Amino acid sequence: MTRNQAFALLHLCVFCWGFTAILGKLISYDSVSLVWWRLLVVCLSLLIFLFLAKRKLILNKNIFWKIAGVGAIVGIHWLCFFGGIKVANISITMISFSTGTFFTSLIEPWIYKRKINPNEVIIGVLIVLIISIIGFTEFENSENPIGGIILGSLAALTAALFSTLNGRLIQQSNAFTISFVELIFAFILVSFGLLLFFEVPENLLSPSITDIWYILILGVACTAFPFIASVEVMKNLSPFSVNLAVNLEIVYAIILGYFIFGDGEQMTPTFYICGVMIGVLIVLNEVLKRKRKKRLEIKAKT
After folding, report:
1. For residue 62, with 0-12 CB atoms within 10 Å meaning exposed, 13-18 middle and 19 or more buried, which class applies?
2. Per-residue pLDDT tens for 69-81?
3. Hey, which of 74, 139, 253, 255 would disulfide with 186, CB 3.0 to 4.6 Å?
């Protein structure tokens, strides 16, 4: 897979993820039950694919527990993400989620044991500032904006962690193995959390027909496929580049939220301006990365 193909696949994943916030609001379950169903559908669909496609899991004892640990982080991430949507709204949660770029600019150098790239930090901070501008126009539409901000930011931090760690794991295994094991352990974590710390709803195992359709779309089209694909592109793209592109999920989610939910997710012209600015920063990051790569190649030859 070339770098351009990896980018195209990544942006398809981001577009799919843009629907998760919409589905999270449409599904009647609370955030914990919603995540439990999402993970159940994902794990079952991957298990069926494993047998039908006769895929092999590439594992050893050492990497198994590393992947399992990352899976726990994935579970916490989704609980925070959908929790923010339920207590606040799509816009506030997605705005807070944009801080993932900044978190990644600090976490990636730490895990990869390299120097912090000033360009990445600056771009990460600019993304946070731009999305914050959007935030000031959205607060009046949320009942609990502080809760949405806290949970959205925690979702961003955990996303930065698991995507960066997956960048290391993909060098030791394959995307399907990593995704399958991570999602299994995310399901186990959420199941124990639901039983021990939350009230299990009476209708947990009897969803409505509408919820079943929404959950299937969420689990298969918006989770299983993009999750595996996003891990695969880590072979060609850095965690920072991936998390930077994910900011477009915010744009997609808020636009879709406006058209589906109307005034509850209403946008101002500021949103469109900021959306364009985010796109420009994503392109700028890629240009800077490619120039830096060329300089290093020239330096290596001389």
Report:
1. exposed
2. 999 999 899 888 8
3. 74
